[in-house]
Design a protein that fits this description.
Blueprint (H helix, E strand, L loop, with lengths): L2 E4 L2 H12 L10 H7 L14 E8 L2 E9 L2 H7 L3 E9 L3 H17 L4 E4 L1 E2 L5 E2 L1 E4 L15 H8 L3 E12 L11 H9 L2 E5 L5 H15 L11 H12 L8 E5 L2 E10 L2 H7 L7 H11 L2 E9 L8 H15 L4 E4 L2 E2 L3 H9 L3 E12 L1
Parallel strand pairs: 4-5, 13-14
Antiparallel strand pairs: 1-2, 2-3, 3-4, 5-16, 6-7, 8-16, 9-14, 9-15, 9-16, 10-11, 11-12, 12-13
Length: 368
C-alpha cells in the first residue's frame, strides 16, 4: 500500500537517491539549499506556508517518490491564469506511486481553486524547469534538471500532455567557433561605439548583481512565461552562487560606463555535489578545494541585453567574450540553461557557437 506523507523534508531529500541509485546522472541541490528553497519564512517566492506543499510516497518502509505543489502568484497575475504548479517530481518506475503523488498534488491545486496543473517548476521558470524527454545519458550542469525515461511515460499515463519544448546545450570551449558569432567589422563597430566589459568582482558584486537583475527583467520581458524577478527573489537565488562564483567568467557589458547587457556564468558544481552526496560533512572543505583545483565545466546561468541595444550584435559579442575568458581560465566545456524552441534567435546563436544539444525537455500539464 502506498502511503503519502506531507512535510517530511528528510524523506523528500532522500527520495531521488533511493529510487534512482548512485549510477544515474541525477544530482541533488544541497540539503541546506533545498531546505531554504522550501521555506515560507526564507523564500520570497511564497507569501505564506499555504502557497506550497511537499509530498513523499512510502511503501514497506522505503521512500518511493516525491513532488511539490505550489502557486506562483506573480505568474498567475501576469498571465491571467488559475494555474497550480508541480515540481521536484522524482518517482520510482511504478504507476501506482506516480498516481498517488500526482493525485495529491492535483487535490492540493483543486482545493486552491486552480483549473490546471503544470510542471516541473523547481520552483520558477528562472530555476530548474521541465521534465527530461531526451538526452538521458548526459550529466546535467548546475541549474539543469535530470530525470529518468520513465517519468514522461508515468505523467502521460495520468493524463498529462507535453508542451513548451526546450533544449539545453553544451559548448566545447576548447574548439568553440567564437569567430562565427560576430564578424570582426561588427565587433569593431560596437567597440568604437563605447561598449566595454566590466568583470563581476567580489568587491562590486552586490551592485553588479543588481545591474544584472534589471538587465534580466528588461531583456526577457517579452519571453513566454517570464515574470520579472524582484530584488528579494534575485538576491535569494544569488546567495547560493556567491560562494562559488569565478569572477573571471561573468561580465557586465557597458556602453560609456552604463550597463547594457550581462552574462552570468558560474563553475559547474554538480561534480562536487555528486561526490558529497549534496550534504555538508567533515570532507566538505576537501571537496571544495578539489573542485576549485579541477573545475573544467562552467554553466551560463543567463545572458541578456537591454532592449535599446538589441539587434546590434551585443549578445554574440558577450558570448564570444565570456567563452574566451573561460578558455583562458582553463575551462573545457560550458553548459547552458534551457532555450525554448520558440526562441529562434538564441537557438541560432547556440548553433553558431558550435553548441551541441544536451537535453530535451517539455512541460507536462493537465486540466483539473
Amino acid at each position: 500500500m502506498i502511503e503519502i506523507r506531507e512535510g517530511d523534508l528528510d524523506a523528500f531529500f532522500a527520495a531521488p537517491f533511493a529510487v534512482y541509485g548512485d549510477r544515474t546522472p541525477y544530482v541533488s541541490p544541497m540539503f541546506s539549499d533545498l531546505k531554504r528553497f522550501l521555506s515560507a519564512e526564507k523564500n520570497p517566492l511564497f507569501e505564506t506556508a499555504d502557497d506550497f506543499a511537499i509530498f513523499t510516497a512510502h511503501e514497506d518502509g522505503a521512500v518511493r517518490g516525491r513532488i511539490t505543489a505550489h502557486v506562483h502568484r506573480a505568474a498567475n497575475a501576469r498571465f491571467g491564469l488559475k494555474r497550480g504548479y508541480f515540481g521536484y517530481f522524482d518517482c520510482a518506475d511504478d504507476e501506482r506511486v506516480a498516481a498517488a503523488l500526482l493525485e495529491r498534488a492535483e487535490d492540493w491545486a483543486r482545493a486552491k481553486g486552480f483549473t490546471e496543473l503544470l510542471g516541473n517548476f523547481n520552483l520558477t521558470a528562472m530555476q530548474q524547469v521541465g521534465i527530461l524527454t531526451g538526452g538521458f545519458e548526459n550529466a546535467p550542469y548546475t541549474d539543469q534538471v535530470w530525470g529518468p525515461p520513465h517519468l514522461p511515460r508515468l505523467l502521460e499515463a495520468r493524463g498529462y500532455s507535453p508542451s513548451f519544448p526546450m533544449t539545453t546545450f553544451e559548448i566545447d570551449i576548447r574548439n568553440a567557433a567564437t569567430d562565427r558569432l560576430l564578424g570582426s567589422a561588427e565587433m569593431q563597430a560596437l567597440l568604437d561605439d563605447g561598449f566595454r566589459f566590466s568583470p563581476i568582482r567580489r568587491a562590486t558584486l552586490d551592485r553588479q548583481l543588481e545591474d544584472s537583475r534589471l538587465i534580466l527583467n528588461e531583456s526577457f520581458a517579452d519571453n513566454p512565461m517570464f515574470v520579472p524577478v524582484s530584488r528579494a527573489e534575485y538576491e535569494f537565488q544569488a546567495k547560493e552562487m556567491k560562494w562559488i562564483m569565478d569572477p573571471r567568467i561573468s561580465a557586465v557589458a557597458e556602453r560609456n560606463g552604463v550597463p547594457a547587457g550581462a552574462v552570468i556564468a558560474i563553475p559547474d558544481v554538480n561534480p562536487m555535489l555528486k561526490a558529497m552526496g549534496s550534504r555538508l560533512g567533515f570532507s566538505a572543505p576537501w571537496h571544495l578545494l578539489k573542485h576549485r583545483l579541477r573545475r573544467r565545466r562552467a554553466v551560463v546561468i543567463f545572458q541578456g541585453v537591454k532592449p535599446e541595444h538589441q539587434g546590434r550584435g551585443l549578445n554574440p559579442l558577450m558570448l564570444a567574450h565570456v567563452l574566451g575568458e573561460m578558455r583562458n581560465a582553463g575551462y573545457e566545456t560550458a553548459g547552458g540553461t534551457w532555450i525554448a524552441d520558440a526562441n529562434a534567435a538564441s537557438l541560432r546563436q547556440a548553433e553558431k557557437a558550435g553548441a551541441r544539444p544536451l537535453h530535451r525537455l517539455h512541460l507536462f500539464g493537465k486540466t483539473l
